[in-house]
Amino acid sequence: MSSLNTHDPNVSSGTAQALDRLLTLHEVATRLGVCYETARQLVNRGEMTCIRRPGCQIRVPASSLSEYLERYTCPARKNRPASSSSKTVKTGISGIGVKQRLRAGQIARRLSNA
Q1: Residue 51 three-state SS
Q2: DSSP 59
Q3: pTM, whole model, 2 decimals?
Q4: Which of 10, 52, 99, 114 is a good FRET partner for 87, with 20 to 30 A between their CA atoms?
């Protein structure tokens, strides 16, 4: 039985290279700047391919991480001065309004439980 390493003549160079570049979910999370759970969810949703090893170990090929980053990388925008005719778009949700509604909901729940 031959072991999978870069010196094995039975393993193609592409396969050996891919095996050398498997990342843990912690490494993926660090490279993306997200928490472990977010990286796990990306894999579970199929946004990145993975290899599931015995014992529930998940490894992500570096090429899969690169493809994910390429898919969601936006081109740099040219710096343009804001025109004087630009309008502010109102979304109907302000940070203060949302906080006030959440707080009002908390108070209402407390009063109904009392």
Answers
A1: strand
A2: E
A3: 0.51
A4: 99
- Tell me what pLDDT residue 3 has: 41
**Domain ranges, ordered by start, for the chain:** 22-72
Provide the Cα torsion 50, 13, 32, 37; round to 10°. Answer: 20
Terminal-residue alpha carbon distance, the chain: 70
CA distance 71 to 68: 5
Q: 34 vs 25, 31, 51, 100, CA distance in Å?
A: 10, 8, 20, 29
The label of the residue with tokens 């630009």 reads: 86
pLDDT band at 77 (very low <50, low <70, confident <90, very high): confident
